[in-house]
Design a protein that fits this description.
By secondary structure, the chain is an all-alpha fold. About 60% of the residues lie in helices and about 0% in strands. It has helices spanning about 5-15, 35-40, 50-60, 75-85, 90-105, 105-120, 125-140, 145-160, 185-200, 210-225, 230-250, 270-280, 285-300, 300-315; strands at about 25, 30, 205, 255. The strands form 2 sheets. The protein has a two-stranded antiparallel ribbon. It has a two-stranded antiparallel ribbon with strand order 3-4. Strand 1 (about 25) and strand 2 form a beta hairpin. Helix 2 runs antiparallel to helix 3 and helix 2 (about 35-40) packs across helix 13 (about 285-300). It is globular, with a radius of gyration of 19 Å.
């Protein structure tokens, strides 16, 4: 990662360039530009971000978000919950979280709303969660967050709230996670490495949707340092259910063309995979490569590298979406 203040300057420039960009394009596809730009900067490529953003905007033809409709009350939890899952209120949610971040430390805002939003973590195929996590990484990296950076957190939380989609959590005696003593970091690694191995073996078609079985729990890890113990455990439990939902509810079928299926296969290095993803320029390849390399640093397992390699191959030779 490039060091502050260069990181902060690059982030602000990217967010300023995307100020008018909404949250979705096409048939309810999430805008990935803020997340991908932050990832490129984290990988040490701030200089490519301006041209990447311009090309990405031309390709995706982003539209503006819905206009503000009615302010979400600051002190009415009932009205707030009624507005969850109503995408028409996304601008209202941005304004709501902007106000929260004006009056309280950003960490307190995240901790206050994390359990509420966590119950709807499947929102927009997990992109509300992932965008929020990237914003949290921005704020954890910059000692003095700028208004643009705080607003990006407001947008991530707002998108998550507006697309809030309940997940199946089960009763306490039905949970698949072990007792409270279980190490959350290890549990998240168990989830991400299993999904990475499955993805690399299946090489699913279409290739993009099922990468979120890796990137969503990996994104949760970015937020763990600011969460209290009980929320960390709850996050781990939800991560298990969320990964299960991604595999079960997002369409995909084995292509039989995964490189990991070849005898004697050895994946490229993490550095090669991230550089290749940056060269390819696909936002999903960039985000998956960074997430897999980050997870690999915690648990060196070639399944992570194989998953990133699988998507890189698909994006390079077959097209991403």
């Amino acid at each position: 990662m490039i060091q502050p203040p260069r990181y902060a300057e690059a982030i602000d420039d990217a967010l300023d360039r995307m100020w008018e960009v909404g949250f979705e394009f096409g048939p309810d596809f999430a805008v990935h530009a803020p997340m991908a730009a932050e990832t490129l900067i984290t990988l040490g490529h701030p200089d490519v971000v301006p041209s990447w953003l311009e090309l990405n905007r031309r390709q995706r033809r982003y539209t503006a978000p819905p206009a503000a409709a009615e302010p979400i009350p600051d002190d009415d939890p009932g009205a707030q919950r009624l507005a969850l899952g109503d995408y028409r209120r996304v601008a209202d949610w941005v304004a709501f979280f902007d106000r929260r971040l004006d009056t309280a430390p950003w960490q307190e805002v995240v901790v206050r709303w994390w359990p509420v939003l966590l119950d709807g973590a499947f929102a927009a195929f997990t992109h509300g969660l992932i965008r929020t996590a990237h914003a949290v990484r921005i704020l954890r990296t910059t000692p003095e967050p700028s208004p643009l950076q705080l607003n990006e957190l407001a947008r991530g939380l707002a998108y998550w709230a507006a697309r809030h989609t309940p997940i199946m959590t089960g009763d306490a005696d039905e949970r698949t996670s072990a007792p409270a003593e279980r190490d959350v970091q290890v549990a998240l690694s168990d989830l991400t490495v299993a999904s990475a191995g499955k993805y690399a073996t299946l090489a699913p078609r279409p290739p993009v949707p099922l990468v979120h079985a890796i990137t969503a729990p990996a994104a949760m890890r970015l937020v763990l340092p600011i969460l209290p113990g009980e929320l960390r455990l709850r996050t781990c439990e939800v991560a298990e259910r969320l990964v299960e939902m991604v595999w079960n509810r997002i369409p995909g079928f084995p292509s039989g063309r995964g490189p990991a299926r070849e005898p004697g296969y050895r994946p490229p290095t993490g550095e090669h995979l991230t550089e290749e993803a940056v060269q390819i320029g696909d936002e999903h390849a960039i985000k998956l490569a960074e997430a897999c390399v980050r997870e690999y640093a915690l648990r060196p397992d070639d399944r992570y590298l194989a998953a990133a390699h699988t998507l890189n191959i698909s994006c390079r030779y077959e097209g991403g979406l």
